[in-house]
């Protein structure tokens, strides 16, 4: 998990759709899960807007190289970090590498995640439960802890939660639980950091066409009509989600903290 984007027959649309306007000029950002999907779309969009970008990924090196090439094509700089962010030492090493290379950190995007479908709660193994929480929420604590000493006034943290936190998902019980934790983490961390001028917000995507779902995140029989139950009748594309991350990372959202945006195809949720 989450699988390789290069192996998908139908490629997700991740390319930025509009010219940049310098909204992250001079900034340095970390995007976890930046090798593919929403992470790739966000990383490349940040580069178009002037940011230098470090992308962290588990093991999908070919995907990561494609992202790196796209970032360089935007005229920016990139740092690749292959590791398991469920390990605190890996998170500290990532931040240390960013500071050593660029001397600052302005934006942290906690996007990396994994999911495993199960029909019944008794099917969820101890190993799967612990691994899902380790990847999806523990990594956010570890990386934010490592980044905190370097985040100054004006910095932004954007966490990826999910529509499943708001509407539930019977097949994704442990995954949905981690996304509930991420939303609570986002709101509580905002309360802790807002006085220091650091904003913390979240994005809760609906069904998005990324490697996560077709490569084991959903049962194969669910993929033929994936996303068609949304009001818009289709799954979203990564480049339809990345602008939400950009908005929350830049000064356009300077009066927002502790909030969640919902690019989910028109699904009505509360919160």
TrEMBL record:
Q: Which GO terms describe its molecular function?
A: oxidoreductase activity, acting on CH-OH group of donors
| Cited Gene3D superfamilies | NAD(P)-binding Rossmann-like Domain (3.40.50.720)
- Give the record's keywords alphabetically: Oxidoreductase
Q: Which Pfam families match?
A: adh_short_C2 (PF13561)
According to the record, the residues making up region (Disordered) are 1-21
Entries under InterPro entries matching the protein:
NAD(P)-bd_dom_sf (IPR036291), Sc_DH/Rdtase_CS (IPR020904), SDR_fam (IPR002347)
Q: Which family does it belong to?
A: Belongs to the short-chain dehydrogenases/reductases (SDR) family.
Q: What is this protein called?
A: SDR family oxidoreductase
């Amino acid at each position: 998990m989450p699988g390789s984007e290069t192996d998908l027959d139908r490629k997700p649309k991740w390319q930025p759709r509009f010219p940049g306007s310098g909204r992250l000029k001079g900034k340095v950002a970390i995007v976890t899960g930046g090798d593919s999907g929403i992470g790739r779309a966000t990383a490349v969009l940040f580069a178009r807007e002037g940011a230098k970008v470090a992308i962290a990924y588990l093991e999908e090196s070919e995907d990561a190289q494609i992202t790196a090439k796209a970032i360089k094509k935007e005229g920016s700089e990139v740092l690749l970090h292959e590791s398991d962010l469920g390990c605190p030492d890996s998170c500290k090493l990532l931040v240390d590498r960013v500071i050593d290379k660029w001397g600052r950190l302005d934006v942290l995007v906690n996007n990396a995640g994994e999911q495993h479908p199960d029909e019944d709660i008794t099917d969820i193994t101890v190993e799967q439960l612990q691994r899902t929480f380790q990847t999806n929420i523990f990594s956010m604590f570890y990386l934010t802890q490592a980044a905190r000493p370097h985040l100054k006034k004006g910095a932004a943290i954007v966490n990826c939660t999910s529509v499943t936190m708001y509407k539930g998902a019977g097949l994704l019980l442990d995954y949905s639980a981690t996304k509930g934790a991420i939303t609570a983490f986002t709101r509580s961390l905002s309360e802790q950091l807002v006085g220091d001028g650091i904003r913390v917000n979240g994005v809760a995507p609906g069904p998005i066409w990324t490697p996560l779902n077709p490569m084991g995140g959903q049962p194969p029989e669910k993929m033929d009509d994936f996303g068609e139950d949304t009001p818009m009748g289709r799954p979203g594309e990564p480049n339809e989600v990345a602008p939400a991350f950009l908005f929350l990372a830049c000064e356009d959202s300077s009066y927002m903290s502790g909030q969640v945006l919902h690019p989910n195809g028109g699904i009505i949720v509360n919160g």
